[in-house]
């Protein structure tokens, strides 16, 4: 007899909803999950800027008010509500159109 095996699967849309990208007017993006923000630069900025040769990262424990698999740093958010002030993907696309005119 072979031992029986039980496989449990569960799916959660909760974390997917929390990790929506928000954009700044300086072409940085952030996703938030569990109070931790993951910060990177947009595809637009990567195409325009080319290689990143310098990045000024925040000091450890510095409080800050503010694609794909690539990102620059992770931060613990002290004021998560400030993320609402940033642009969603649709607003960022409109911002890019205005900037290219």
UniProtKB/TrEMBL annotation:
GO CC annotations, alphabetized: glycine cleavage complex; mitochondrion
Pfam families, A to Z: GCV_H
One of the protein's GO biological processes: protein lipoylation
Stored InterPro entries: GCV_H, GCV_H/Fam206, Single_hybrid_motif
Protein name: Glycine cleavage system H protein
Lineage: Eukaryota, Metazoa, Spiralia, Lophotrochozoa, Annelida
